[in-house]
Amino acid sequence: MTKLWQVGISCFVLLLAGVFALGVSGLPADAGYAGISSRFVPILVAIFLGVVGVLLLWQSLTGGFRNFVDEVASLPADVVGVIWVSAGVLLMALLVTQIGFVLSAAVLFVCTARGFGSRAVLRDLLIGIVLVLPVYWLFGQVLAVSLPKLFNQWL
C-alpha cells in the first residue's frame, strides 16, 4: 500500500539532491591546495541525497518504508527543540561575517544543544569552539578554502 506522505518525503529528498547539484554549478572548479575542488563535498552530498531519495522512493512505492512503525508518526513534535536548532542555523548565517566562523559555529552548537535539552550554555560554547577549531584548520590549511576570520579581525 503506497502512502502519499512517504512518496512526498522521497520526492523532497530528490529535490534537495537536485538543489545541491544545481548549486554546485556556481562553485569554482579550481583545485585547492590538496588538489580537491570546492565542488567535491557538495557533489558527494548531492549524490548521497540522490541515492537515498531513489531508495526511499522505491521503498515507498513497493509497500512503504521498511522497519517503520506508524506509531512514530503520531508522536508529538518537539516544537521548542526545532525552534532552537532553526534559530542556531539562522544565527550562524547572520553572524558568520560579524564574529567569524568559529564563534558563529559555536553559537550554532549551543543552540542545537539547547534544542536537545542542554542548559549548560558556557560548557556547550566551549565544546563548540573545541569542535570547530579543527574544522576551521582543515578548511583553511588542508583544503585551502577561505572561511571568515577565526575570531573576525582578532586573529
Number of domains: 2
Radius of gyration: 19 Å
Largest sheet: none
The structural class is mainly alpha
Counting DSSP H or I runs of 4 or more residues, the number of helices is: 6
- The overall pLDDT average reads 84
Terminal-residue CA separation? 59 Å
Low-confidence stretches: none
Q: Which word captures the global form?
A: flat
Amount of beta strand: under 5%
Order of helices and strands: HHHHHH
Q: Let me know the number of strands.
A: 0
Q: Assign a percent range to the helix content.
A: 55-70%
Give the helix/strand layout.
Elements lengths: L3 H21 L15 H22 L8 H4 L5 H21 L1 H15 L5 H22 L13
Task: Describe the protein's architecture and organization.
Helix 1 (4-24) packs antiparallel against helix 2, helix 4 (79-99) packs antiparallel against helix 5 and helix 5 (101-115) packs across helix 6. The chain has six helices and no strands. The chain is flat. It has 155 residues and is mainly alpha-helical. Helices cover 68% and strands 0% of the residues. The chain folds into two domains: 4-73; 79-142, no CATH class.
Characteristics of this structure?
155 residues; mainly alpha; 2 domains; 6 helices
